[in-house]
Amino acid sequence: MSPAIGLALDRVEGRAKVSGTARYTAELVLPGLVHAVLVGARIPSGRVIAIDTGKAERAEGLIAVLSHFNLPPIPGKPRLLPSLVGLAAPGESFFPMQDEVVHYAGQPIAIVVADTIERAEHAASLLRIDFAELPAHTVLDQVRDQAYEPQRIFGGMLPGRNSRGDVEAGLAQAKHRIDQTYRISPNHHNPIEPSATTVVWDDVDRLTIYDSTQGPTATQMTVSNLLGLAPGQIKVISEYVGGSFGSKAMIWPHVTLAALAARQVQRPVRLALDREQMFHSCGHREEQEQRITIGARADGRLTALRHHKLSLTSPFDDWAEPSLQSPGIFYDCANYEGVYRLARGNTITPTFMRAPGEASGMFALECAMDELAELVDIDPVELRLRNFAKTDPSTGNPWSSSGLRECYQRAAELFGWDGRDRAPGTRRDGQWLIGTGMAGAAYPHAVPPNQQRARARLYADGSAVVEAGVSEFGTGVTTAMRQVAADGLGLPVDRVRFVGGSSDLPNITAAVGSAGTGAVSAAVHLAATELRNQLIVRAVADQQSPLHGADPATVTVEDGRMRLHDRAEVGETYAAMLARGMTPDVEALGVWTPPPLTTPYGMHTFGAQFAEVAVDADLGLVRVRRMVGVFAPGRVLNRKTAHSQLMGGMLWGMSQALLEATLMDPRTGRWANPSLGDYLIPVNADAPDVVVETIEVTDTVVNPLGVKGVGEIGIVGAAAAIANAVHHATGRRIRKLPISLEDLL
Ligand code: MOS
Questions:
Q1: What is the CATH number of domain 448-592?
Q2: 604 pairs with which residues across the strands?
Q3: Which of 136, 185, 550, 717 has an alpha carbon 20 to 30 Å from 635's alpha carbon atom?
Q4: Is the pLDDT of residue 83 over 80?
Q5: What is the reported pLDDT for 578?
């Protein structure tokens, strides 16, 4: 039996998804269900003076209008926690509808409940709300002089400043210097399935929450905390989630508001956000600018790197996506300083968005390195190899695994980089200016700080079920975990089911930071091997088993049959043994204790991105012609889903480079393009030829299977490779995202 791990299997739930039979949270049919609509503030700052409900109350089907005027305050206080570890994870340290103050446009100020969604929306449109408006600040330019340096950022997880060596001394030694600022527009996740929550209270004060979430336990713990309920009173079910990308990693206020509404009206309540509400209800990648200062010797070796980020955050939280993390360890440079600065504005707290930090930070660094390559007149790949970090420069520790050098080499080979003409603006194809560019990629390998659990159960018919409270939001975890469990148990894949998506199952951290598959595969692997070992021990102790008396270490399992390693004819199936013992099932728990934060290894995932663009010489239109990405994500559990994740990341990087921007209108303090019609994302016709490969590196540090994850690394560096290719094509450096045709006219 050859291993299932690594096979390119189709998604288990693929057919249900594409045929429309998969039921998402907002599609569940429940008896007595009523519908809640959130009403958001029209103004970005001020107070709610009055809500006139007169007309709404006469509307057909209306059940309730809830606001701070008639809702009791919640007992809990939201606090942005250091990380998502299966604990409460509110998206911001603020909970709406507790008083009349408006901090940002779209902040929930009322909930309208009616018997149908249409009637709820209609009644909501009849509310007359009086606001007293105050001046608001919604863009960096309005508040940059009030910027401050936070102690810690990212929910307290990371320090606001990091340094080593002496940057000024390093710059003094430099022959060449780059000092540039890169600006990045706000971005929104826009998963195809908008967030939705359905809540059912039973008559003994227990509630079931169906939620579109990245972590059922995170939802359970957040609502428990905010409503002052015991966790055991709350069950969260999240069977299908239609994408997330970080927008459903934190548990935003609408989830708890749905629970409050359901309690208030004593009916099951569904609250589904519409597309526009998604733009101010679930966080976003914040508006930011990054200044990079590099000093280098004549040969291109770095003597200093300074990376300063300024970004806009909410009135409540010191949130910045950690854009300085990977750039700070990517090159061998003794003198480094990274500093975050924040300015407060009238916005919801920003949040994780695919490759949080690295998608923006590596863009800035890798564009600056391209500028340096041009200045020093060295090939960009060669410049990176000259500054290659053989160990983690922030600690001197070895990498748990790297593969970066191989990624550069393989990607350059696949792309045909050798012999590239270094002078920009020299290649032409009719009206198109042609250019190529490249960039490195890195993403930190996050390990959860607590134990991760999964359960494996073998039935007497020889089939198995493996369970963990993980959310399947498109990552392919449901499929990959069958493969892991099948190998651990010695069963064919089609004899194993994986069940996740419920807070009643063994606790697994919310799947964030590319850590989901690593964490859950570790627990599943341990559960499966633990169960196999138990079954073998049972067989050798069973006088009626052909394996009786054998040393368990000499027994192997193949295709559900235990047998002696060196005598295949001596053995029996799991099923035969359990049937004889009248045992319906046997189960085991797998408990994985992740390596501690003090582990003396640098843990990162690496990759390399190459792109070719064509720029219309007259119109400035940029078309990406091809992309090559080679990544070293450790063990790949399913080649097909991993490939899709990486390719999706690369295409998103193209989108980040050329299309995506949420535009703030500072006059109204509201997003100007909160729809999929106005927020530009690529369609199939924009997709270039994309080549994705992985370099398999062995990693014995990160987790038992050496899985480093593929969720984020695919986007990292892609925008830089494209921006560098645009420069190569046109000779123009566009130091902002997205690069639009106006920039190139
Ligand atoms: Mo991921 S952007 O950390 O949910």
A1: 3.30.365.10
A2: 444
A3: 717
A4: no
A5: 97
